[in-house]
Fold:
Amino acid sequence: RLSENGTNGIAKKAITFGNINGHSLKPKVNLQEQRKNLPIYEKRNKLIELIKQHNTLIVLAETGSGKTTQIPQYINAARIMENGKIAITQPRRVAAISVAMRVAQEYGSGMGVGDYVGYSVRFEDCTSKKTKIKFLTDGMLLREAIADRLLLEYTVVILDEAHERTIHTDVLFGIVKKAQRIRTERHLSPLKIIIMSATMDVDHLSKYFNNCQVVFIEGRTFPVNMYYTVKPHDNYQTACVSTFFKIHRTAPPDHDVLIFLTGQEEIESCAHQIRVLVKDPEVEGPPVKVCTLYAAQPSTQQVAVFQPAPIGTRKVVISTNIAETSVTISGIKYVIDSGMVKSRTFHPSTGMELLKVQRISQEQAWQRSGRAGRESEGHCYRIYSRSQFELMKKNSTPEIQRANLNSVAIQLLALGIHMLHFDFLDKPSNESIETAFEQLKLLGAIEDTDSIALTSLGKKMSKFPLDPRFSRILLSADKYGCLEEALTVVSLLSSESILLNPPSKREEALDARQKFNSGYGDHLTLLNVYREFENIGQNNRKTWCHEHFIHMRNILYVREVRSQLQEICKKCDMRGSSCGSEMDQLRKCLLSGLFMNVAELHRDRQYITLDKRQVTLIHPSSNFHGQQPHCVIYTEVVQTTKCYLRGLTSIDSDWLSEIAPEYTRNHNVKFQRDS
Ligand code: ADP
Ligand code: MG
Structure:
């Protein structure tokens, strides 16, 4: 219900849009003209000179200057790269795909993405032999480094969005630095490194790269009028919607709005509310085109975000922090900033990795407001008070200092590097490094926490683009005779949710999927959905998905992920097996990788995690909500006002000492078999 900030007031006014031609598009500006208008264009000769002179260069320029889309093209046109390719990393897959599509389009002459310009993200490779400019996620470049430590395929590596300080970019700093040094020492083709950033403490970074050259490119910015809420709001989502309508009532139709929220669910629900409310005949204002932008979105929807709305229609884009610096949308005059972001946080002392909605940093707040002033003067509404802003951290903590390190630790080990001896820009704490190595040891990837060699199991684990816990599940599956099922569950967990829960049809959706429910919990329920999907003929899939509220595109993606993981299993000489209806086999197999994610019922609805004895509850979205299985494994911890476990499978507590004896001994787990 929207009762705050006068949204009800808006609803009382009469409508005024009758004579608007909603279908003629705004005139298109020629792409090449657009390129020439970018701030970076005037500096291109100077930039090329600098890139030729220096092997390492830091480029600093405002978001929207043209760094990501233009610099690779300038380098290419200047023939700096001769035979090699250019790699450009992006922290997010959506950004990698979207900029690759844009650059391919700018190249023109009917060239599609995957030709000269391509991208590579986890489970999706859109490149060919012809590809010279390759956008990839930082995680993918790190994977490539395992196969080719000197990155010889590339002449230029551009680490973009360096200010985001993702764990993979931080590790890549060290990897490319070393690759560059060795290539020079061995008289191999030199490696050019370019670090690009929208903001950053560059002295620190430049020092790390042996005091390399830094170039600042002045952007074009216009003043942004700032508004803060008078008092703090506890429901930022509702406040965002009502603020939108406050703007909508008076702003000219071609003034577009960008709203920052934290994740898919929140964004879809906000989009739904706006779509419903604009249809209300009492709501005043022009027609609205609502676009959403979040991770793993279909590319067709992504394209819509960048397309101008028809004349007389207002566009509102609701986005995660991806629109902060990774992609630029033109036409934005208003920004509404919830002040929140969802991020992964790991507490080495509690051993828990949490997906948590938290306050952004002041730096992020400035980046967000800057999106309103790219083309002319704009406005930014902050859904927090001035004093709340003052309390925000100046900068966000680098991910490497707050994330679980076991994936990266195993990848570095595959490169023959022990994390303790790695040349980090900012070192993670010893405590979290130790935790990661302990976990790898428990998973059987290493013999000892100080060894730099992987066991043969560990070597296989490092071949999967997965958290080591999940690769361990797959590698145990032969033993339990359930590879088919384990592949399905791990693929489902590596993709976006296949379940659709439209806010207006929640009950209906749950009823339609009732028949898939497994008494063993969420993972096995998803397995049931997938199994039935596979039995449906290709022609009936669409109807079936529609009837059961299943996300067709996401389930097809799961299928794709599954077949790629299956390939890797084959390369690891796994036999392939199915457990049919013997679900104990599969549950044991899941436990073999997830024994560190076990919680037991403590008292009324409360679950205690075995690892660090944290008190948690079952998430309302779980199959088990309202039930109280004795012992469960979980795949996600979500913290809102309380701590919730999400993605559950019930297990038999006796299995724990059988499957993970060392762990069980050391954690002094309550349930040990009576003997
Ligand atoms: P930077 O990396 O400096 O933030 P970009 O190179 O990403 O800048 O963007 C330059 C310009 O290209 C942006 O202002 C935007 O208008 C345009 N642009 C970038 N990506 C897209 C896209 N996918 N669709 C349409 N326009 C885009
Ligand atoms: Mg960029």
Remarks:
- The two ends are 59 Å apart (CA to CA).
- Residues 552-571 form the longest helix (20 residues).
- The first strand starts at residue 56 and ends at 61.
